[in-house]
From TrEMBL:
Pfam families membership: Phage_int_SAM_1, Phage_integrase
Taxonomy, superkingdom: Bacteria
Gene name as annotated: xerC
A single Gene Ontology CC term: cytoplasm
Protein name stated in the entry: Tyrosine recombinase XerC
Keyword Acyltransferase: no
Function, in words: Site-specific tyrosine recombinase, which acts by catalyzing the cutting and rejoining of the recombining DNA molecules. The XerC-XerD complex is essential to convert dimers of the bacterial chromosome into monomers to permit their segregation at cell division. It also contributes to the segregational stability of plasmids.
Domain Core-binding (CB): residue ranges: 1-84
Biological processes per GO annotation: cell division; chromosome segregation; DNA transposition
InterPro entries (UniProt xref): CB (IPR044068), DNA_brk_join_enz (IPR011010), Integrase-like_cat_sf (IPR013762), Integrase_catalytic (IPR002104), Integrase_recombinase_N (IPR010998), Integrase_SAM-like_N (IPR004107), Tyrosine_recombinase_XerC/XerD (IPR023009), Tyrosine_recombinase_XerCD (IPR050090)
GO molecular function, one term: tyrosine-based site-specific recombinase activity
Amino acid sequence: MDQHIEEFLDYIQYERGYSIETVNAYTKDLIALEQFMTSEHLTLDSMKYVNTRALMNELYDSNYSRLTVSRMISCYRSFYNFLINRSILDDNPFNQLVHPKKTKKLPTFFYDEEMASIFNSLEPSHRFYERDLAILEVMYATGLRVSELTSLKIEDVHLDIGYIKVTGKGNKERIIPIGEYAIEAIKTYIDVRSHITESILFLNYRGEPLTPRGLRYILNRIVERAVGVYEIHPHKIRHTFATHLLNQGADMRTVQTLLGHVNLSTTGIYTHVTKEKLKETYMKYHPRQ
């Protein structure tokens, strides 16, 4: 089974272009599947629908969220389909499973004054000020995912015309415009790191490509000094990018393209946030409230 898992993970990463985060998540999911099958004395071929139901019950009893369980079902279904396509198995016991209904959770975002506080917390005398400023400016200007930001190359940044080329999920490319603040921050940072030949744009203190974990560390260090801001993560800045655009009147189709969403319904969650903003403004300023 280990060999099949390894081949499947290679397939989704190198042929299907899944992000490293998804590959890592699927790796853990398949380890959980293997452990369950061992405990139940099952093989890939002997796994039946009734066993998949037992697995789901075990996951819920272990307090896995609905979102995580839904991802695990997708992982196991894809894994079995992979084996069927290679004539290793004949049936997929996970096909009959229904994804759990997802709980609607509004994305959190920063208000304008909170973003200003984050930018103001950067210290020009800090050793990595130029890099950290460029990271913040690019994230807020583009709404990039973590994997997209850390894989961004210098050759992908076209400062003369104000665009960056991004390779997103499924190796799909998209072009995103950037404003003067981001352009100037990137120019300054590139000048600072001009003696380093590494093609990846954002580097760690060793001059090596910044990892997702390293990015989170940088953001946490920044927020420690920001007034009125107590929590930050890369996706929250992505949420902020989308929410601020919609609040300022951008149409959802444009935001969908910028975010790299395949389905408009994925972008639609941000309309709930903007409606909350409208309600808040109404309740604050209407004379009869």
